[in-house]
Each structure stands twice: as structure tokens, then as C-alpha cells.
User: Fold these one by one.
Assistant:
Number 1:
Amino acid sequence: MIDRLEKLRSEGREQIESAASEKELEDVRVAFLGRKSELNLVARGLGKLPPDERRLVGKAVNRIKEELTTLLGEARERLGGKTGGPGLDLTLPGRVPWVGRKHPLTRTLERLEGIFKGLGFEVALGPHVEDDFHNFEALNFPKDHPARDAHDTFYVEGGGLLRTHTSPVQIRVMQTRKPPIRIIAPGRVFRNETPDASHGSEFFQLEGLYVDKDVRFGELKGVLIKFLRELYGDDVGVRLRPGFFPFTEPSAEVDVECRICRGKGCSVCKQTGWVELLGAGMVDPRVFRAVGYDPDEVSGYAFGLGVDRICMMMTGVDDIRLFLQNDLRFLRQL
Ligand code: FA5
């Protein structure tokens, strides 16, 4: 049987080599590898052979099939090239290689980090799974305080919670360092709320904290306006509204003119022409006490930006939910 297979192999090789056209090559293929070919008949009858012989013959059949298939492919290319046939069609459009790129949220984060580094801030990071002390208590959210309701929280089995904002990183940094401190803390945050065009249940924030002697609200306003102008240009409309956060006093919410509709009103700005991008304020003395600082000695400001919303304004994407759906058809457009 093995001798017969060897003979088939050398006959196949010879006929492939001497084929002068693609048609002849196809005939050779059908004769040696087609459904009714001898090789195929041997393969189908393998089950009837004794086990030892079956293994040997099976291996030989596979080896010969592979060899002849490779030779056929090579011969097809050779003949195609010669005759100008399907081997090379110069009229086909070129294939553009698919180049990967960074996610738009990553690019936005890098842009924001670049601007704040230029203003003297350094990057600090904290964990996604937090404890009640860092996410709430030290930030002056007493237990049962209604301000906690604004942060619909995911609790983790066995204790802990998914951080609802990046502000706990402020606490971690102040617990381990002495002023002056000038940090930004970018990262993912989680809230158990129903997503819509401008609200995700998982999104990114970037926290800022500056603590030193005699820090004033005017410096906070100056840094934020400088930052927003670098990001959107000098003509960007910015407005500060009085706000409330348990960990800052006084506090402000900062809106920018909606870049999607240019202030005319759309689904992202809920027809108001403005989008809330960040919260900010002067660090509350109670927060300083919680980390062991003396509020008579130091003062500071803090702010927290919504990175996804900034990314929406920069890219013109009008639904925040699209960013984390991992749909390449969407991501490749940005
Ligand atoms: C906070 O989370 C405060 N920690 C911010 C802060 C830090 C205030 C330091 C003062 C000092 P707020 O819940 O408003 O605040 O969220 C801050 C920003 O995150 C918002 O302005 C908005 O841009 C963005 N944001 C809030 N909720 C969502 C959401 N569900 N989806 C997308 N972005 C959101």
C-alpha cells in the first residue's frame, strides 16, 4: 500500500510540474486530490485496515495530500503570473492595513494630563474598590446624610464599594504626604444609575487637588479657566454656578457652552446649550481634620472633571454609552 502511495506522489508531482495551463492544473488536482481520486479512496477505506497499518497509511496519505496541495498552489501562482491570470490583478484596489489606535477616552485622558502637568500638577492613582472611609466618611459625607443618595453606589460582596468618584484619591494622598500638594487623579468611577445620552454607570473622572498655605478661590477659578481655554480655545463659553459638595466650601459647578450644538440646544445638553463638566471648591476644614492637617495652617482647592463628557465635546459624539460598547465600527471613526 505504501509503495502504491509513493507512486501516486511522484506521478502527482510530475504532472503538476509539467502542467502548462491553469486548466491542466485543475485536471491534475481533480485526478489526485478530488473526491473520486485514488488517494481519497484510500483515505475512506482506512477504517478497514488493521490499527498498525491504519496509522502508517493515514500518515502517508495526509503527508502526500499536503505536499501536492502546496505544489499546486505554487504552480498556480507561477502560471497565473505568466499568463496575467488571477495570480496578480493590477486593477484591484489596494488593501489598507488595519492600524490599531488608542481609545478616544485614553486620548482625552492623555490630553488632560498633558495640560495639567504643564500647570505643575503630578499624577496620583487610587484603587477602584474603595472603603466607606475614603469614598464618603473622610470627605464629610456622614452616615445617613442625604448627600450620599446622589452617589448611587455599587457595594462589593464581603465589604467595600466601587468608588463613586475620584475624590477618595485626595484623601489617600493627603494621608501619606505633607503640603504643598498639587496632584491630579485620573480614573474610572462607577454609579448604579440608569444610563442615558450624558450619564454612564461607569465613566471616567479626573480629580485635582492643590493644598498649600493661603490658597484662594481666585486661583481655582484661574486654573480652571486656563485649562478650559487650552482645551477648547480662547472663545469657549464658561460659567460657574454655586454648587454643593460635602467636602468643599464654597463649591461651584462649572459648565461649558455645548460644543455639539454650539449653545443652540441638543440631547446632550438637554436643550440648555450648556454642559456640566466639573465640580470644584475650597477643601472643607473637616476634610483636613480627617487626614490630620490643621485647617488653620493650610488651605486648598479641589475639582473633579467628567472625562467622558469632555471627550464627547471634543469628538462630537452625542451619546456617552457608545464609548464603552467596544464596537469597532464606532471606534474606528474617531
Ligand atoms: C463629583 O463626583 C465630585 N467628586 C467632584 C468634585 C471633586 C467636586 C472635587 C468638588 C471637588 P459630580 O457628581 O458632580 O461630582 O461629578 C463630577 C463630574 O463628573 C460632573 O460634572 C460630570 O461631568 C461627571 N459626571 C457625573 N455623573 C456622571 C455620569 N453618570 N456619567 C458621566 N459623567 C458624569
Number 2:
Amino acid sequence: MKEELEGLLVDIENRSFDSDDAVEEFRIEYLGRKGKMKDLMAQFREVAPEHKRELGPLINKVKTAVEEKVAAEKASFNKNSKATSSGIDASRPAGGFPHGTHHPLQVVRREILGIFSNMGFGVVEGPEIEDDWHVFSGLNFPPEHPARDMQDTFFVERDPDLLLRTHTSSVQVREMERREPPMRIIMPGRVFRNEAISARAHCMFHQIEGLYIDENVSFADLKQTLLHFAQRFFGPETKIRLRPSYFPFTEPSAEVDVYWGLETEVDKRITKGTGWLEILGCGMVDPNVLEASGIDSKKYSGFAFGMGIERITMLRYQIGDLRLFFENDKRFLDQFAGER
Ligand code: PHE
């Protein structure tokens, strides 16, 4: 009988079940009214007294083994697969919540602002609906300048003096009027232009404007500031070049290119075979602009620059179509899940 009991212990240990019902069958097989335990007890009664001392505990061991096995297996089935009658399994581990991702424009905006904050520039914002003075006249745009044209600017119908700003340079004017130099500010915001929407143009985009006014600010300061920015943003080896340009509110004016390289076919295509890519416009603030905002142009000088966030984001992530930024297609946005 001893071997039989030991065999049963092994059997109990090794049993496995594929359902709750199978566990119940096993319980009945051992502990039921006509079960194995019943037979064992009957046999035990016949055993010679000198063997009882050894076999008694062994029988108890079999019984406890069955009870423990049944309890453990039932608990595991309840936990893993048994739904409640409502069809909801409240014990099932939660799947986790999907997190949103940062929009690529937001990622780049924050990074650019961070670089200029580290150089001591304070962040300032201004209104998107502006008046002619802050967008054009205060910035030395002559009355017949093409940028004022209906083609480029969205005007507010009720009031011809009101318009959607076409650049963030308007915030420069507001700040120059509002306070005294020295000032060192960076001005992010949305701008609007009446353009046909395509892969390269949109009626709405984002700019970041910079302005630095103090005594003795020179073109060399402008160049070093932008070089530092380009090397922080695009990498420490980045080279820049300044090409003469024209803006009504800066003199001299320049456009800044970064050296992108000419190694691949893509490099050749996006740089039009030159290796250089334009990233922003800049210049020394025109004395007329300083005076128009009540700043003494004999005492103070300054530089300003403006860049398009979309443009820089497209370069950084090799995005070929501007419209993707505004469509909120999750398949596009999810690709920036790792960006902070
Ligand atoms: N406002 C100009 C633009 O929208 C950019 C610029 C800003 C140029 C500041 C010079 C100085 O193109």
C-alpha cells in the first residue's frame, strides 16, 4: 500500500488541466463519494496495526495534496480566463494607455527656443491679428510694397487696417515700442499668407523671430549668434554662409545658409546642386525702424532674424511635404513618438 500511496502523490503532482471542469473531475475522482480517498480509507482499516503508524500520515498527505492542487488550479483558471457573467474580466491586467506624441513642429520650436534661452534671449509673443503699422509701416515697408498686396496678406473685411500678420517681425515693433533697450528677445508664432496650398507652401505656418538691441551691437555679433545656433541645432561641425539680401526693415540684410553636403542624390536635389540650404533671413535693424518705435538710433543698434519652423523641421526630419504638419494623420505623428 505504501508504494500505491507514493505513486498517487506523483500522479497528483504531475496532473495538469486545460479547464476548470477538468479540475472538478479530478476533485471528484479523489474526494468524491465514490472516489479514491474512500477506497484508501477502506483499505487502511484492514491494515495491520504496526503499519498504521507509517501509512496514516501518508494517506493524509495524499488528501492534502489533492486539496491543495484543486485550490491552486481553480484559482488560476478564475484569474486567467474566467469572465464574469457580464462578460467583463475585471481581473485582467490593463493594456496600458496610449500616449500622445509631441508634434514635430513643437519639438523643433522648443529646441530652438531652448538654444536662444541659453544665450539670454527671453521669449515674447504677440497677436496674430495685427494692424498695418506693426506688420508693415512700422517696419519701413513703403506704401506700395508688394507684400501688402491682396495676393499675400489676409485682410479683415470689416476694417481695412486689420490683417493677419504675415511675419513675426510685428512682435519686434510691439516690443521696441513697449520698452527700452537693451533687449534680447525671441518671438515664436503663427503667421499667415494668402498662398495656394502645396507641398512647399501653406496659408499658415510658424516662424521664430529674434531681436537684439543694445549699444554697439554689430554684424559680427549677429553672425556669431547665428553660427552658435546652427552648430547647436545641426551639429558642432556645421558651417554657415551669409548671402546679401533685402528686407525693408534691416540694413544690411542677409540670408543664412547651412552647409548640408553633396554626397547623396537627395543632398543634390534638396540643395539644388549647391550643397547649401537656406534657413533664415536676418540683418541689422534699419535705423528708420528703431526711430519709428522711439529708440535712439544714434545710441543703439541691433540685429534681427526670422526663420520658418516648418522649413527647419523639414530639413531635420527629411519631410518632403509641408501639408503633413497640418493634417494630423496619426501615422505621420506617431513617427515622432521618441522626440521630446
Ligand atoms: N520677416 C522676414 C520674413 O518673414 C524674416 C526676417 C526677420 C528677416 C528679421 C530679417 C530680419 O521673411
